Amino acid sequence: MTNIPSWGRVVAQPHEYLIHLRAGRVIRHGHGIACFKLPSDSVAILPTSIAKLSFVADQVTLEKTGVAVTGLAVYRIAEPLLAYRMVDRDRGTLGDILRDMLVGATRRIVA
């Protein structure tokens, strides 16, 4: 995660998506762009590179047999503006949400 200063020039890497907000409105956004952040502005940098997520789902089948499913999901943020509105600034939160969704879907299929 990129360290964002309280004011000054903020630069995103080519694999990162920068969102610059002033007074609640998006001023500038894009991959690998730079902006000048005022103290009252908000800047978010979202990584858009591929990430992987592993999960384990335990479920009991109709035959009363315990099943443990281990899975791996590969994802990337395709809509950074939507992801920014939906998730906190911490990408770990996004991973937790996706993991819970995958575990729930796997349990539903196994049951």
Structure description:
The protein is an alpha+beta fold. The protein contains two helices and seven strands, in the order E-E-E-E-E-E-E-H-H. The protein has a three-stranded antiparallel β-sheet with strand order 3-2-5, with helices on one face. The chain is elongated and about 60 Å long. The relative contact order is 0.18. The mean pLDDT is about 90.
Task: Supply database-style keywords.
111 residues; alpha+beta; 3-stranded antiparallel sheet; two-stranded antiparallel sheet; 7 strands; 24% helix
Number of β-strand runs? 7
Which structural class matches the secondary elements? alpha+beta
Distance between the termini: 38 Å
Global geometry: elongated
Low-confidence stretches: none
Largest pleated sheet? 3 strands, antiparallel
Number of helices, where a helix is a run of at least 4 consecutive DSSP H or I residues: 2
Strand order in the sheet with the most strands = 3-2-5
Question: C-alpha Rg, in Å?
Answer: 19 Å
Please estimate the helix content: 10-25%
Quaternary state reads single chain
| Average predicted local confidence, pLDDT | 89
Order of helices and strands: EEEEEEEHH
> What is the strand content?
35-45%
